[in-house]
Amino acid sequence: MTADALRRLADADWSGKGPSWQEPWTVPAAADDRVRLNSPSAPVDAVTPPKRYDERERGQMAKTARERLAKLLGGSGPAGSFSAQLSVPADLLRVEVSGVGPVRLPLRAPLTKKLIAVARPAKFGRGEETLADASVRDTWELTPDQVTLGGTGWTALLDRALEHFRDELGLPRGSRLRAEPHSMLVYGKGQFFLPHQDSEKDDAMVGSLVVSLPSAHTGGELIVEHAGKSVTYRASKEELTLVAFYADCRHQVTAVRTGYRVTLTFNLLADASPTPAEEARPATEPARCLTEHFSTPVTSRYGGRDLPPPNRLVFLLDHEYTQRGLSWDRLKGADTDRAALLRAAAEQAGCEAVLALAEVKETWDAWPSGSDPWDDDYYDEEDDTDGGTGTDPDDYELNELIDDEITLVWWSGPDGTGGEPISLDVQDHEVCAATPNAALTPHSSEYEGYMGNYGNTLDRWYRRAAVVVWPRDLAFTARAEAGSRWALGELRDRIDAGDLAGARDAAQSLAPFWAHLETEAGLLTTALDVAVGLEAAGTAAMLLEPFRVELLAREHAAGLYGEDWTRSIVEGWFGSKHDLYGTGLSEWADDTLPGLCGALRTAGSPQVAQLLAAGTWRWLDSQLQLWTTTRSDVRRPRLETLSSPLVRLLKAADDTLRDEITGTLRGYDDTVLECLVPALRLADTRGPAALEKIAWDCAERLGTIAATPPRDEGDWSIEWTGCGCSLCDRLGTFLGSRTQRTFEWPLAKDGRRHVHSRIDTAELPVRHHTRRQGRPYTLVLTKTDELFTRAANARNKAAADLAWLTAAYGTA
Predict the structure, then answer these.
(1) Which of 23, 287, 741, 764 is 20 to 30 A off residue 90, Cα-Cα?
(2) E strands within 706-786?
């Protein structure tokens, strides 16, 4: 604390009465000669981020611009601590509790037991849940409405204490802390609170304040941790002990051994207020680093050609923030000074800077602490363990960083206001930090033990804030890569403003990455508007490429016109983006295609309707080719799901395409009946003439099957053609025999496996098993009665389908 602050506290008027819990509170800091300070205010040292193994191998190579920048920011000035303490006279505070009355300080056991009598077991938050579990948190809690605070000088002391904590925690000088009452806690013998992290219950919440009331007890220490450092705070027997710490610090209360520990807890809220500008630290050298970073090609980590210069730099901050609580004037500790310096350097280098939230995953080569990886028993499979999610990260020794992933999930506008969710993977050559992830506490971790050829890995997940910088002339591209919604809106605004050339240039800058972005249905209308407004066919096709044809609906008909610029778009939509089973396209063809094609023809775009119908047929034809040649148990349900899209396609197609469809269908094997007959049952007999052609083709196929003569009783021959190998030739001889039902075949393992696969793939009515006697084992093949029942069932089904077809379509 400064001498000036001490004088101000000593000169304070202690005559006023303190507020109740319901009154507004504010907080700064100071103390007179009776106030003792205990604050671990050593700044976090600037360190370079953990490097991968191959980077460490490079020895004494010159540092990159981003590494030099990380070092500059790490030593950019005095950093605040993550926690701080004040000890003040207890007679400055008066406490009164409903149902108990005045609470005399220091506390004695009889009075503390009365507090417990009006308290309830404390709960804790886990994610979105509020839980009560004495194995995690065992303490008594009183709510703010049960407690009233007052006392001579308490208000003035609290104001000055909060000012002190603001400075000690490194919050901006222009900010103002407020203390919002949260609870009164009573810990008895054996009670504790396991390591945890406070949730930020308000947009402005930055930390917590714990006021320990004086009492005689042992144990019950408050331990606060952050960035690999830990501080232990013990309460006084005679004085009030105030401890403030950031909300993202993990902390715990150890078990009370004797006596009682009683505390008042507050949420610390930071309000920004305008203050005279402080003298800025020189940003010249950081600005040079930014300029070099954005102008230097990147050397691939694994060698080879150089990559283009990066278009962004992501500097990871030390503390965690919520979306609502992240702003330039509410940063914590060392983040405040580093972000201010980086923002000034960005301005000097002609760049923009935004605040962002990042999800970080690291995978380390690791092993449990205390184990010996060179011990032969270490790799015994019986000893393999999986630490599971939530593993204590301190239980493992880290060896080498194997991989890391950084994804930006949210960022603000350049002015720090607004914000949007994003999903942007960041490359390692775009990232730097003053504090490595390994020095922070992960929010979760998972260990994979040795699994024979992989394992001994520890995955750690972190949530960090970041300052993201990009050159001002690349601002559109840098922001657009994080998501399509903002980019399309910006392009439309430029078109509406008459800046067509600027819109075209900006749109073209998206080409390197646009096709890989995730899109959503609600953006297709905007994308079509922009594509039309650009009046550039190639650029329009590029913008629409990420969208899937399943997103098209009738309301989009007006935005699709002309064959020239839509042909490549439609062909791309029916390209390789669709999964093997085509579920989305099947539903779209069934529900949307006919109405969309009708709307396109009404809007004067029949060419686009033809393109969409033709693309749908190419997809459907490929599906039929795939599923008509597979096993019956897979084939039948797949072909039946294609029956309704086929009917809807015939309704949407023009006569030329219908003729093409019916001609192609006639070339399929009889298995196509498993799609065509259900399609005819679904269709309206007054539909397109193509249905009648399909019906006549099906009737011919069914008649042939139904007229197949029954197999002779003693004929056990099976027609089959193998792959041409000697094993298949021998199997074919057995199958072709009219009289031989069983074949015992001494055969080695690989040969048995080959024969098994051929029988199963062809769905032959042959049972096979291995008699494991002698060498080689004997493969026993037996023809089954299904040889007769399968053919009979096929004839009966064909006859029944033919009878229905004759009645419905008059195909007799």
Answers:
(1) 23
(2) 742-746, 766-771, 778-783
Pair of tokens at residue 316: 């990871």
Give pLDDT tens digits for 48-71. Answer: 333 433 333 333 344 789 998 998
Helix (H/G/I), strand (E/B), else coil: 303: coil
Residue whose token pair is 């960090």: 464
pLDDT in tens, 66-119: 998 998 888 654 457 889 999 988 888 999 999 999 999 999 999 999 999 999
Q: How far apart are CA 363 and CA 554, in angstroms?
A: 48
Residue 489 backbone phi and psi in degrees, to 5: -65, -40
Distance CA 179, CA 294 (A): 44
Which stretches of 432-518 are DSSP H helices?
475-480, 484-496, 500-508, 511-514
- Kind and range of the H or E run holding 444: strand 444-448
**Angle between the N-to-C axes of helices 655-666 and 643-652, in degrees from 0 to 180, rounded to the nearest 10:** 150
* pLDDT higher at 629 or 381: 629
* C-alpha pair distances (Å), 519 with each of 322, 546, 775: 26, 7, 60
- Cis check for the bond before 776: say yes or no (omega within 30 of 0): yes
How many Å apart are CA 482 and CA 513, to the nearest integer? 10
Residue from 702, 716, 711 nearest 784 by CA: 716
How many Å apart are CA 353 and CA 468, to the nearest integer? 5
Distances (CA, A) of 431 to 127, 302, 328, 477, 637: 29, 18, 20, 18, 50
351 three-class SS:
strand
DSSP letter, residue 111: H
- Residue 254 per-residue DSSP state: P
Say how far residue 582 (Cα) sits from the centre of its chain.
25
Q: How far apart are CA 353 and CA 313, in angstroms?
A: 9
Q: Is residue 212 a contact partner of residue 48, using CB atoms and an 8 Å limit?
A: no
- Give pLDDT tens digits for 481-539: 887 888 999 999 999 999 999 999 999 999 988 887 777 767 888 998 898 888 888 88
Residue closest to 308 by CA, chosen among 511, 503, 507, 512: 512
Closest among 339, 351, 353 to 288, alpha carbons compared: 351
What is the per-residue DSSP string for 712-728?
PTT---------SSHHH
Phi, psi (rounded to 5 degrees) for 473: -75, -10
In SS3 terms, 166-209 reads as HHHCCCCCCEEEEEEEEEEEEECCCCEEEEEECCCCCCCEEEEE
Angle between helices 606-627 and 593-602 (to 10 degrees): 160
Nearest CA-CA partner of 150 in 210, 92, 211, 215: 92
Closest CA to 62 of 289, 283, 342: 289
Report the first-to-last Cα separation within the chain, whole angstroms: 103
Count of Cβ atoms closer than 10 Å to residue 38 Cβ = 14
Handedness of CA 137, 138, 144, 150 (dihedral sign): negative
When computed from its CA atoms, the radius of gyration of the chain, rounded to whole angstroms, is: 37
Q: Does residue 392 surpass a pLDDT of 60? A: no
Q: What three-state secondary structure class fits 371?
A: coil
Global pTM? 0.64
Cα–Cα separations (whole angstroms), residue 633 to 151, 458, 621, 660, 778: 82, 43, 20, 29, 29
- Of 475, 472, 362, 335, give the one whose Cα is nearest residue 43: 335
Average pLDDT on 719-738 reads: 91
Q: Cα separation of 330 and 408, whole Å?
A: 20
Torsion sign across C-alpha atoms 644, 645, 650, 652: positive
Judge whether 393 and 407 are in contact, CB under 8 Å: no
- Cβ atoms of 346 and 353 within 8 Å: the answer is yes
State both tokens at 380.
Answer: 């015994």
Q: What is the distance, to the nearest Å, from the Cα of residue 322 to the centroid of all Cα atoms in its chain?
A: 16
- Res. 358 pLDDT band, cuts 50 70 90: very high
Length of the chain: 812
- Looking at the DSSP bridge assignments, the partners of residue 446 are 459
Structure tokens at 93: 């505070």
